[in-house]
Specification:
Layout: H1 3-6, H2 13-27, H3 33-40, H4 44-56, E1 60-65, E2 69-74, H5 76-90, H6 93-113, E3 118-122, H7 126-135, E4 141-146, E5 154-155, E6 158-161, E7 172-175, H8 181-189, E8 197-198, E9 209-211, E10 218-220
Parallel strand pairs: 3-4, 3-7, 4-6, 7-8
Antiparallel strand pairs: 1-2, 5-6, 9-10
Helix pairs in contact: 2-5, 3-4, 6-7
Length: 221
């Protein structure tokens, strides 16, 4: 996790540190407390205190790892809280625009390399409009927005539907749901090939989730 994620002035300090820790655990289960503290720019004791608080809240589980180390895993509640805090962070328009413009280019580059031209957006948020602008620089066709809300027939200038099966010949799917990106990804996997489902990295989606030796712990990648 980059220090940028942990230094957003719009969020209160406790939320910033908590989101930073959850992102680090998501990225690397075996990260040391010292590396977490260094990346967050806080004292080691403070990082330890926040980790203990996350464990007490049921957001993180700890298990023993080789060489007398510890491994940290997000629980389902931890994934949910990470998504909530990420949405809070992204709700600041400047943060959202900066991250979305940069990473949308990477997503459309990937589509172009794979000759994926027919694309749908899964989820409705401010991301749709930003991604639609970026798409103009690429040889792609935006087909529709898949929404959670029945009865919506247009969003961000694109046709909208709550029925993924209504859109045919889809080459790739881009997740645009800010409120629950992990849930949107899992839902999209029910209708499209997992390898064709793309998402900006800042949404923090775990594309592969397995159960750790403790059945209540979640390992992501």
């Amino acid at each position: 996790m980059s220090k940028t994620k942990a230094n957003t002035s719009e969020m209160d300090n406790e939320a910033k540190i908590t989101l930073g820790l959850l992102n680090m655990v998501h990225d690397n289960a075996q990260a040391s407390q010292r590396s977490m503290a260094d990346d967050l720019g806080i004292a080691l004791g403070l990082a330890n205190a926040y980790l203990k608080r996350c464990v007490k809240k049921g957001l993180i589980k700890i298990s023993h790892a080789p060489a007398n180390r510890y491994a940290y895993y997000l629980t389902p509640q931890g994934f949910s809280e990470k998504g909530r805090l990420t949405a809070e962070f992204l709700s600041q328009s400047l943060n959202l625009f900066r991250h979305a413009r940069t990473q949308s280019a990477a997503l459309f580059d990937q589509c172009q390399r794979n000759n994926w031209q027919r694309i749908v957006f899964f989820g409705a948020s401010d991301l749709n409009e930003i991604f639609t602008l970026s798409a103009r620089d690429y040889d792609v066709k935006l087909l529709a927005v898949i929404t959670h809300t029945p009865g919506v027939d247009e969003y961000a200038g694109l046709p909208a539907t709550s029925d993924p099966t209504a859109i045919k010949d889809v080459d790739a799917v881009i997740i645009c749901d800010i409120a629950d990106p992990q849930g949107a990804f899992e839902n999209a996997c029910l209708h499209y090939p997992r390898e064709r489902i793309l998402a900006p990295k800042f949404l923090g989606i775990a594309k592969h989730i397995a159960i750790s030796p403790d059945a209540n712990e979640v390992v992501s990648s």
